[in-house]
Amino acid sequence: MSSRTFEDKEPQRRASSGFELLKGVGQITGSTLLSITMLASSIVAGGLVGLAISFRNLPDVRQLRNFFPSETSYIYDVKGKLLTSIHGEANREVVPLDRISPNLKRAVLASEDGHFYDHHGINPTAVGRAIVANSKAGSVKEGGSTITMQLVKNLFLSQKRAFTRKIAEAVLAIRLEQILGKDQILEMYLNQVYWGHNNYGVQTAARSYFNKSAETLTLGESAMMAGLIQAPEEFSPFASMKLAKQKQKEVLGRMLELNWITQLEYDNALKQEIKLGRIRSFQGSALPYVTNTVAQELAKRFGREALLKGGMRVQTTVDARFQEMAEETVVKWHERLRGNGLSRNQIALVAIDPRTHFVKALVGGVDPKVSEFNRATQAQRQPGSSFKPFVYYTAFATGKFAPDTTVIDAPVSYRDGDGWYFPRNYDGSFKGAMSIRTALAQSRNIPVIKLGKSVGMNKVIETCRTLGIMSPMEPVSSLPLGAIGVTPLEMASAYATFANYGWQSPSTVIVRVTDSSGNVLLDNTPKPQLVLDPWASAATIDIMRSVMTEGTGKGAAIDRPSAGKTGTTSSEKDIWFVGTVPQLATAVWVGRDDNRQLASGATGGGMVAPIWRDFMVKALNGVPVENFKSPSQFPRPRSQ
Question: Does 385 participate in catalysis according to the annotation?
């Protein structure tokens, strides 16, 4: 809490007798009124001190020394555009007292507690006035509450009006003023009070009502906001500008009466045009696949309570316009594939910068309003032949194999449990001797299985773990054909590591997280580590370039050096294209949520490669063309 004094910002105190303040409260005589005021004063002076002893079960206000109200967390894109806010029961952003407009401070004090800086928690005159009003009504109609009493009520007590609660408020208010300064109490109050439309605290309220910071509120805006406190939704300008202006006039009148503003300031404030913002509470999230992924990552790291109430400021790795372009691409191709007979298809897309491993786009499905399930991060689907580069990398890393090493595409069988496994190629044929480059370009199955057997399937699994693929894997003969479950995020991240020649940072959608005071909670500045052999990584990229120029991925070819691999499962349930340029690695998956066949003959090369190409052409518009490094630029590993 701020420890600044109010100094010149403190409203000029107007000397007023209890009689003047009580004037007009009911048709009672001055002597009666004076007696009531004196009675209230005596209660304050002595009675409440005694009552405090009997209120031993009241909360300990000393805990407020370290009190931090729950705050809304905000998620922004990489350029600072607000994407969404996350909060539990309160939409709140805490600001220090010196960042709140003096106009608003004066207006609130005038409206709620004109003698705030003169009393010690309760105002005897206000108590007397309340006693008169309540005695006439026969019930609690007027509270006589000071700002301190309102604060302890909001923090500790129920909202039910009762005489016993009012006494408890008074006791707690006296206790609180013994441990906290006036400015601390006022700051806490302004950040705690409810302003309507699920806005708690002055900052979120100012942004909602006037689309500006609490620091820059004018006198007219401040008076209108101060008038909301007693019945926020009723006097909200969003609900009734007429009632809001009526309350504004009352607050300005009270400020004028206290000599805190001049007649000219009063007149000008009433004439000021009020430009409303918009109700921000409960607003929908922009880019929900991104923001939901961010929220899940934050909850996992800091806990859900901290996410909902911790007031985090989160900068994501995603540019909102770039993400929107990716989402539009997915929607467009969803409709095209439906027109080509792929009914009920879903599409996921993940794009990662290989140099930083920052996620640049993440699309988890066709329409988040229909299904919030994020297929980009949560759907583990078989990658088919897009898994093969992991096997070839493992072979290259041994130093025994190179892109032009000859392999034999011929019938083979392997013992598989109690039976035998007879792998076959997609087209059922065998083509004899060929290079590893050709075997990958044509997506032949037999050579990659043989190579996996040669280097050891456990070594292949070890490569996958290094690349961040954590799905369950068994060293079975069919592993090189992608007989496991992976997510599009895992595939894009793995290819990004190849494209960065073995250098890897953890893939993330978060650049930085701070608290509301600017203290850094999480800094994901890339700290790349060399996790793969550079030569073997460059060799893997090199053979994947042949996929694009002369193989199954020709439909994905773009007007710049690129490398990639198609993926199609044997039952056509999952079809993929995963590819990369030096600046961007992208995985695109197409399938059905019910895991049924898409269509007979559906392939990654025929149906997904064009999606990848369309996205990459848009994504790389204006990005300089870069060449991949040749394997010859790195030392080849010694044969193991």
Answer: yes
